[in-house]
From TrEMBL:
Family affiliation: Belongs to the bacterial solute-binding protein SsuA/TauA family.
One protein family per Pfam: NMT1_2
Native organism taxonomy: Bacteria, Bacillati, Bacillota, Bacilli, Bacillales
Gene3D superfamilies in alphabetical order: Periplasmic binding protein-like II
Keyword terms: Signal
Places the protein is found: Periplasm
Name of the protein: ABC transporter substrate-binding protein
Chief location category: periplasm
Record carries keyword Nucleotide-binding: no
Organism listed in the record: Paenibacillus yanchengensis
Length: 337
């Protein structure tokens, strides 16, 4: 009887081990990686390219992509292990770090290197001058988020105090900002693509300036994971970074029409010409990073933007929550060929 119990125990243990070892395997037998993206945007075209062109599959990965609207929700999903990797603004990792999290959130690959929003005016302004914004109603973004911080940074750059020189509206939820502007709220609004281009076509507004061009290079959106996950899954993170680099290089050589064709499945109901014009705008201002490497100058520019918005509550050194080991390896492999 004792021997039979031991046999049953070992069989049960073997079954459990098999189940656990397969927990992170996808239907194809490839390693499953769950990504949570902060929003669905043409700004993240390289990510969709990496999926649709099979770059992740080539690296032995199967991707489960979920949109987790807003930085707070995305970070909550990451910290609670609902996702493995987050695509979100690097500022969220800084907030987590400064709160003293035991398991730090580490930036390991950059996707976009500029702000992705555009200043949309209600009417055509030729030529546009930033001084036009003073004394108006400005429909801004969420307090503490990168779009809003960059918006304030750029306004200050043009000698406009966002708290004193205009009426800054920040009580509208992120998802409702376009509808609020379309219904008459604000003289100016800060919008991502493709919404900005759609508004132009509909006559709702006109793109008059780019916050990405005005604010310079910074790790605006990056892939990040918990430090514990990276430590346990270095091979996965390396494969992931390799796939992103392949997509970034493909984006560089492709034109906006080719890119739009590849990412179409992610944007139901968006006309092809709108997608093409949106992607072209991002390519022209070099929003899509050419490689996953975050350099220290970009990181410091991010800290300057946060400090200008009074959202940086402590010192965050580059090496504390930025790990470029995986980006360096893929770049070293390329340079050695």
């Amino acid at each position: 009887m004792k021997r039979r119990r031991l046999t049953i125990f070992f069989v049960a243990a073997l079954v459990l081990l098999t189940i656990l070892s397969g927990c992170n395997k996808g239907d194809s037998g490839k390693q499953l990686v769950r990504i949570g993206e902060v929003t669905r945007s043409l700004f993240y075209a390289p990510q969709y390219v990496a999926i649709e062109k099979g770059f992740f599959a080539e690296e032995g990965l199967q991707i489960d992509l979920t949109t987790t609207p807003g930085g707070d929700k995305t970070m909550t999903a990451l910290l609670s292990n609902a996702i493995d990797v987050a695509l979100v603004g690097s500022e969220t990792s800084i907030y987590v770090y400064l709160q003293g999290a035991d398991d730090k959130v580490i930036n390991f690959a950059q996707l976009t290197q500029t702000d992705g929003t555009f200043l949309v005016a209600r009417t055509e302004e030729e030529p546009f001058d930033w001084s036009n914004v003073a004394g108006t109603e400005f429909l801004g973004q969420r307090v503490g988020g990168m779009p809003q911080m960059v918006g304030e940074f750029v306004l200050k750059k043009h000698q406009i105090d966002p708290k004193l020189d205009l009426e800054l509206i920040q009580n509208v939820d992120y998802g409702n900002i376009p509808a609020a502007f379309a219904s008459g709220t604000g003289d100016y609004v800060q919008l991502f693509e493709p919404t900005a281009s759609i508004f132009e076509r509909e006559g709702t507004g006109k793109v008059v300036a780019s916050f990405g061009t005005e604010s310079g290079l910074l790790p605006y959106t990056a892939f990040m994971a918990r430090e514990s996950y990276i430590t346990k899954n270095e091979a996965i993170i390396q494969s992931f970074t390799n796939a992103i680099y392949k997509a970034q290089q493909w984006i560089i050589s492709a034109d906006a029409t080719e890119i739009a064709e590849v990412v179409t499945p992610y944007f139901d109901g968006v006309d092809a010409d709108i997608m093409i014009s949106s992607i072209d705008r991002y390519k022209q201002q070099a929003s899509y990073a050419e490689n996953p490497y975050i350099d220290e100058l970009e990181w410091n520019n991010l800290l300057d933007v946060m400090s200008s918005a009074n959202e940086l509550k402590g010192d965050v050194q580059y090496g504390e929550i930025v790990n470029m080991k995986f980006a360096e390896q893929v770049l070293d492999e390329v340079s050695s060929k």
